[in-house]
Design brief:
Layout lengths: L1 E6 L4 E6 L14 E3 L13 H8 L8 H9 L4
Antiparallel strand pairs: 1-2, 1-3
Length: about 80
Amino acid sequence: MVLGELDSAANRITYRAVNSCIRFLPTLDGKELITVESLQQPSGELHPVQQSMVDNHASQCGFCTPGFVMSLLRCT
């Protein structure tokens, strides 16, 4: 998953990939949570990172691939 957090010094949101397996729920308070499931558009179109993984046969197991996608995601 990716967490968005306000960087008040830079007056912007910074994003970073984090390991969801060991993340405690209270540490998410006040942060934006982005999961691999939330990347897909309502129309069903995949995010470019997801589509690239499909196009290049870049999948691993069902646990690893979502983490790869979220680590590759560049939030702007």
